[in-house]
Specification:
alpha/beta; four-stranded mixed β-sheet; eleven-stranded mixed β-sheet
Length: 511
């Protein structure tokens, strides 16, 4: 073990010890977390409104506080963005993580408190790093540079320039410890550059000759970077540029569609991939065994978890209704909608993800979907409301009408960027399908800031591909699956190509 690994593990040993303890007694850590959250929230505007001081336990909390999604919590967040303090948490909030995914707004703004930043987000990364070094004490990742492909931040206009919002990755970079700057690349000002193409070019110039041993971020963004690095250096493999590369810490979107492309570009048995579940709302889990794709739930990071069985979506828990599960009562194999209360001031907040426990003691999860229809193959987080709205705009402006449609990802290859493929059965087809694709693309950018960012300058995604299907195609597909009539509907958005390929297989083969 290198000296720097020994020092790092010694510094992280308290966190690692608590991880081991939480594996054996998760309920104790979650109860302590709950008590701390209530104590810190009782004198906030939200805590007074919901009578936190009168609560005597989790049951009272579930009885007195309804489950909320972002739309329901937004009035409180707007008060924070307007400059009011101590609305949801007993600390001033000057940072908001901006992301898409709501049904009625282009973007959502998640408050990042100092406690949430350090104990949850940065603390989660420390846990993942310590766990990795425990498993691989001979790793050389700390002997070289860590490359981070961050987003950007800007002043929040609602708060007269006294607050900021931006990508979570950019917020974490802006608050990373000074010691991290010794091993991280590119320099902070480059990592926070707003223009994606300019950032990529600067990274190629600055980092091509550095000893980069690990990198992190969303798979689709980093694949764009890798391709440009190889082109810039006239190299075939990433190991030709960075021979000591050995770790990619990824999250944000499903990695499986990208796995083979990464293996093709980064050959060798030494390369390892570690997934983490770090959302704008908090750092929730990380992969603690590369041989097991599930992730260890982090139970002592300022997040109290509840698990609502899929399909059981009561917004409140009235007397006699079944309360959501806690860590003490969950079972394996059951999909749950994730509900969180955090040291960022999110109280009984419906994240939008569905998880499933793969094991108990330790409690490990995998993400199995969303509580609402969405497509998130490249970090675009496109919700059904976004798709419906944009399709309506494109049809109106192109004098077309659509009978049925579904959308699937066209994954990146070594030669092309990713995109969305829209399979549409038109009642009245547009006169110009290319113009229709352009208008649909523009409308999607207008309603979803994450999609807009991925499409900027064709950075990660290309324009949607529109495929007009013959009349009756969707009906035939439903008939073959005995899904005609009643409540059966064509799934609109998919995160894989299974459904799209089934439908395309019904089309006549070209002669």
């Amino acid at each position: 073990m290198t000296l720097i690994n020994k020092i790092c593990l010694a510094r992280l040993s308290p966190l690692l010890k608590r991880i081991e303890q939480s594996r054996r007694d998760p309920a104790r850590f979650q109860r302590a977390c709950f008590d701390s959250l209530i104590k810190n929230g009782r004198d906030t505007a939200f805590g007074r409104e919901h009578r936190f001081r009168a609560m005597r336990g989790i049951a009272d909390f579930q009885q007195g506080v309804p489950v909320r999604d972002y739309d329901a919590l937004q009035p409180y967040i707007d008060r924070l963005r307007g400059g009011e303090d101590h609305v949801l948490w007993n600390q001033r909030v000057r940072w908001f993580a901006k992301s898409s995914g709501t049904s009625s707004d282009k973007s959502k703004f998640i408050p990042i408190t100092p406690d949430n930043l350090h104990a949850c987000h940065l603390g989660g990364f420390k846990r993942m790093l310590g766990s990795f070094l425990q498993r691989h004490p001979d790793s050389r990742i700390l002997s070289g540079k860590a490359l981070t492909l961050g987003g950007s931040v800007q002043f929040d206009a609602m708060n007269n320039g006294k607050a900021f919002h931006g990508d979570l990755s950019a917020i974490l970079l802006a608050h990373s410890p000074r010691v991290a700057e010794w091993v991280r690349t590119p320099p902070r000002e480059v990592a926070l550059t707003a223009d994606f193409h300019e950032k990529i070019e600067q990274i190629c110039r600055i980092c091509s000759r550095l000893d980069v041993t690990n990198f992190s971020g969303v798979p689709s963004w980093n694949l764009v970077l890798i391709r440009r690095l190889l082109e810039y250096n006239n190299a075939r493999y990433l190991t030709d540029v960075w021979p000591n590369i050995e770790l990619f810490m990824h999250g944000g979107i499903h990695f499986d569609p990208y796995r083979e492309q990464y293996r093709a570009l980064i050959p060798g048995e030494r390369m390892r991939y570690v997934e983490n579940y770090n959302a704008s709302e908090g750092y929730f889990a990380f992969q603690d065994d590369e041989g097991d794709p599930s992730m260890l739930l982090t139970l002592d990071n300022g997040v109290f978890y509840e698990f609502l069985p899929a399909g059981d979506r009561e917004e409140t828990t009235p007397a006699g209704a079944r309360a959501p599960e806690t860590i003490e009562s969950v079972t394996t194999g059951q999909p749950y909608a994730l509900v969180i209360s955090t040291n960022g001031g999110l109280w009984r907040y419906l994240v939008g993800d569905c998880v499933e426990f793969t094991s108990l003691y330790p409690h490990k999860i995998r993400i199995v979907g969303r509580t609402r229809l969405y497509i998130n193959a490249f970090g675009e987080e496109l919700m059904i409301g976004n798709a419906e709205s944009a399709l309506s705009v494109a049809c109106k402006e192109c004098r077309a009408s659509a009978r049925e449609y579904t959308v699937a990802p066209l994954y990146m290859t070594l030669d092309s960027k990713g995109s969305h493929e829209w399979l549409i059965e038109f009642n009245e087809p547009p006169a110009d399908l290319e113009r229709f694709a352009d208008r649909l693309d523009e409308a999607l950018c207008a309603v979803n800031s994450d999609y807009e960012a991925k499409r900027a300058n064709n950075s990660t995604m290309s324009r949607p591909v529109i495929r007009a299907l013959p009349e009756g195609t969707f009906l035939r597909w439903m008939e073959e699956r005995k899904k005609v009539g009643g409540q059966h509907k064509v799934p609109r958005l998919s995160n894989d190509r299974r459904l799209a390929e089934e439908i395309l297989a019904l089309l006549p083969r070209p002669r």
